[in-house]
Amino acid sequence: MKRIMAFVLAACMLTCLLTCFTVAETEQSAQPDTTAQSKPALKISGYPRLYFTAEEKQVLLDRAKNEDPGYGASGKDMADAIIAAADQYLDIETFSCTYYGDYTLEFKLPMSDPQYRTDMQSPPPTYTGGAYPYWTLMSRSIENRLKYLALAYVLTDNAAYADRAISYVVAMSDWEKWTDNNYGDGSTCLDTAHLTFGATAVYDFCYDRMTDEQRDKIKNAILTKSIEPLAKAAPSRITDNTQVLKNSAFAVAVCLLYEDIGEAKAAKYIETATDYFSWYLDFLNTSGNHEGLMYTAYSVEYMMVAFDVLNRVLGIGDLINHEYLNDFLMDWLVAGSENTHCMTFNIGDSWTSGGFDVTASVLNKQNHNGIAGYYLNKSHRGNAGFDGFIYHVDDLYIEQPDRLQSVFLDRVGWGSMRTGWGDTDSVFVCTASRSKQYHNHYDDNSFMIAINGTFIATDPGYQDYSQSANGTYTLYGGHSTLYVDGKYQYKKGYASMVEKMTTPFLTYFIGSAGNSFVTNQKMTMFDRTFMLVNHAESPYYLIMDNIASDKEHVYTWRINVDEADTCELNGETAKLGVLQEANFAKVSNDKATMGISFADTGNINMKYYKYANMLGKLIDVTTNESRPTQQFLSVITPTAGNELSFNFPELEEKALLSDDSLELSTITAEADGMLLFKPQDKGDYYELPLNVGTSGNYNLTFKLAKANLYGTAKFYINGEYIGEYDSYVDDYLDFEKVNFENVLLKKGDNVLRVESDGSSAGNDTSYIGIVSLVAKCENADAGIAKVKETVYEDNVLGAVVGYGVENAQSDLVLFSLDGGAIDKNGLSTDGIEAAVYDFTEEGINGGYSAVDATKLTYNGQTLFECPDKVSVAVSYENDGSAIVSGVETTARLTVPNDGRKLYVNGEEVAVESDVVEVSLAAGENTIQFVALEGGSNGIGANTVILIVCAGFILLAIIALAVLLVKNKKKDSTQ
After folding, report:
1. Can you spell out the DSSP letters for 696-734?
2. Most confident of the following: 3-7, 650-654, 917-921, 965-969
């Protein structure tokens, strides 16, 4: 028995040792076999095989019954929607497509060959973009119908769906070709791809329902109208979306008919397609060419379908592992999306709906790409339609994308910076691209801003294909960039952007687009600095434009504010189309407000107007004077607006209760529901986070329930009592709005506590019911940073920027205009930028920064110095300080000597005075100031666990030693 006890103790000790060594490890799930095969061989025989196998069909049937909403619609909701759509397709004999300019064509079902329809042989009225691709929308509509009908058959076993789908493909099999003769030279194009995807899905899903004659006819059509013509086009090294879709359809069709084609020939076809895909992914990864997020999604989504099919049918999985997909694309998607629903920035020919549903789903499921999981969960995309159901991830793997808070996307020439990840945090995306791809616009050094689920600095997005003001506006004139003599950029792919810093506190990009203009307007310089100063309470952005030409021009700074409902210039309602002398603009809609404050560089004028008096909403800023050089310095502050609404039932899942046994639930007492709290004792409470975008004093208006079961509620914000309300009435349930004035809320999350003060007279309970809260900021401009003072002389442009409530705090930010040293207002550096943050007459409270500098001084005090040029941002108020260096070096820094510990790259640095010397690695070096709260000495959670484990090990060793000693003594006496 004692030997057993000893063994148990030893096992415990071993377990603790293993725990110590693995505590910081992340559990790794089994990964699929993605090894490429030089000679692909069928893994699956028979049908279905493309999107799922016969064995996997049960997974789909189970999903169709699942009512768990997951990250959006439930599997049952998706399946019901697919079946409902298929039901409609059963009952109709025609369908219509609405083309450019609302031009509509109707098609009879089953469709006869549309090749010779005269109404498809000329462009729609007003379209001036050349031969019009009627077949693209038509073929996509056919593809969707075929897929929905086929999938409905799989989910229900109702032969009517399969028979209808089969009849459509049989009719298509009689067409002369699956491409539009009126578009291009009649060779394969997008039409071929879409028709192929539809036909192959029907053949795969409905194979058991077809007659031998139908199978032969459809198979022959896929071979002769899809595979053979696509085989001729597949090898071409073309980078547009058309070629990508052709190869994707080609690969899927070959996988479908692998045996019928013959193994040798089919293997050669697959090699052709996969060679193209590998080349194309490498091209995207290295060339800098792209077509914006929407057209990238259009290409990659279909390509990812092909990759998934290749992996399932032939075991070719290496393509899914490509660096571009896993290490860049999902980062670009999330970095290029706003915070609330991951709506994408519609730069170029794009809309704001991301559209990477299949790609994100496959990468998340196959490779555990957590950024893809974040996108799916946040956007609720990938939860509808054929793709949403087929590729749904039943167990999302999610990574919080903190590393993407500010990021430079060099491959596409985008810079992304955000103040945080909450709904009321803002996101700023700018572009200066070397891509010459067709679907890009003439928009170098343009930018957009999103906050609180809306875009407040906008872009026209998808171009209009007419020779009209709308066409000019969308492609050229509606972007937030520079205009010269009223003219726009005429060249694309000649710009560039560089990253100086991307830290949580300070982000700094420089876009160069002087070569984006035509010869007679050519700029010798159009450098635009994009900068984020991420103060914890009141962040803001700066844009500094440094413009030069060998000729005199009138320069115009333009911003697109098409989503704004109101515009003020210098505090007065703007007069539409009238040039006014002003240096401050404020625009608002129901979700956001944005202030734009300009440094005084001389005779600044503003105009709020509609392009061509009818399109978009723009603000132009100009000196209205011809000159060879010009500078603009603007401070831009987006906020979540002055009035925020909080729906209490929606916040239920975030509630923290004083006791887990208490009941807090949503009931349907009101149209939007009511959050009902049932305390047991006086003092019971729950807490909710209220996220606001601007620090300031707010009026809080609660909508509260009152009835004969209700009692008194006390309200606290961030621990401060703000008021109470007795909701008892000797009557039925009713509602009342209760107002608390002048309540201080800070930017970010605020803790609201709702506490029971016990029952009221005549009432044995003390329920508390709340429907909603409206928080309205008393100061309309609270949190909007403004230029207090302009510094503009010699080679320096800068400003004293007021920020915070009533602009009570001040930063001094200076830029070098010629790359030379800065020495103004007591601030001196050899870098291209210098700043001190939250400075007063007594000193610096917030920190400092400098870019490409070896030294920074303020009023004679050296803030930092280094033998090598580095970029430094030190914030005393929040995390995010860093030094970016190109080489290993050392630096001397001024830091707070107030009891906080200093860590550089995770290593503690002794702070014995207000100046420390630190060693720097090449790259970004993180700097942290850690306060000693509650006696904490900075020991991390893993360290605590290791200590606990070590304690267990010591106890186990002692116990084992005692047991062995006793056992030895016992044995010696026997």
Report:
1. EEEEEEEEEEEBTTB-EEEEEETTEEEEEEE-B-SSS-E
2. 917-921
